[in-house]
């Protein structure tokens, strides 16, 4: 079920999915993870029979994804030409689906992961880099992760595919003005926003917890892959959409209408 399409449609012939050559950045917080937004994209890609290349830096595993999508009424394809699951590993191994994140000298490297993505990419595919923050947490520098994303984006655009990445950005919630350098997560987010097409910002409610609302999402147009900005929906941070996670779906609604809508 593509529950975000009525609220955040993309331009082009497939409004549920980012158009070719575009780059969608999804930031979230620890209290309001954006897994549900990814599930929407996965369900839409499966419905359109577009290949998914999932680079699982979180190491959540295929079984978890299969179980959630099944609850949402979608079956994860078993064919490798429709779904490729890449799970980079911190340990040396011989699996082509688990490229090593460290060299034999324990130096961080993303070259093997890039190579596997390159070999898995098809025209029109949806490429998802899930959990870029986790790379920084295990020792990768922000510039190194930024260069990796730029390289993957170049691959994606050459193949007329679409790129999606996720990362945590809890520091965005801070309202204090600081003269100190930005944290690693904010530094990485700022680098990605410079090359992105659109940004979905997911976070918990600024007013605190609610039994009816689990978080909010705003949408910011950065640099669409074409000069035509018509059809690109923008939802400002000051008036975001809100959502509620349910057993077999996600309810999305305008701010302040949750109790009546649900």
UniProtKB/TrEMBL annotation:
GO process terms (BP): tRNA wobble uridine modification
One GO CC annotation: elongator holoenzyme complex
Pathway(s) this gene product operates in, as recorded in its UniProt entry: tRNA modification; 5-methoxycarbonylmethyl-2-thiouridine-tRNA biosynthesis
Protein family according to the UniProt entry: Belongs to the ELP6 family.
Name used for this protein in its record: Elongator complex protein 5
Organism (species): Naematelia encephala
């Amino acid at each position: 079920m593509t529950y975000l399409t009525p609220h955040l449609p993309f331009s082009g012939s497939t409004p549920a999915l980012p158009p070719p050559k575009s780059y969608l950045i999804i930031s979230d917080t620890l209290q309001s993870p954006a897994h549900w937004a990814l599930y929407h994209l996965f369900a839409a890609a499966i419905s359109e029979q577009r290949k998914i290349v999932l680079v699982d830096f979180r190491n959540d595993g295929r079984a978890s994804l299969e179980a959630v999508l099944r609850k949402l009424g979608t079956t994860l394809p078993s064919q490798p030409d429709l779904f490729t699951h890449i799970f980079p590993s911190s340990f040396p191994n011989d699996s082509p689906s688990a490229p090593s994140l460290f060299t034999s000298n324990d130096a961080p490297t993303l070259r093997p992961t890039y190579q596997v993505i390159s070999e898995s990419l098809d025209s029109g595919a949806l490429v998802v880099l899930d959990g870029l923050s986790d790379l920084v947490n295990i020792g990768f520098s922000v510039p190194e992760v930024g260069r990796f994303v730029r390289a993957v984006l170049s691959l994606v655009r050459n193949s007329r595919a679409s790129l999606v990445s996720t990362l945590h950005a809890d520091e965005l919630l801070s309202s204090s003005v600081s003269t100190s350098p930005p944290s690693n997560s904010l530094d990485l987010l700022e680098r990605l926003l410079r090359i992105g097409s659109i940004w979905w910002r997911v976070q918990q409610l600024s007013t605190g917890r609610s039994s009816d609302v689990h978080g909010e999402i705003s949408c910011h147009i950065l640099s669409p892959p074409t000069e035509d900005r018509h059809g690109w929906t923008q939802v400002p941070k000051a008036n975001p959409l809100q959502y509620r996670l349910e057993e077999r779906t996600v309810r999305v609604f305008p701010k302040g209408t949750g109790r009546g809508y649900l």
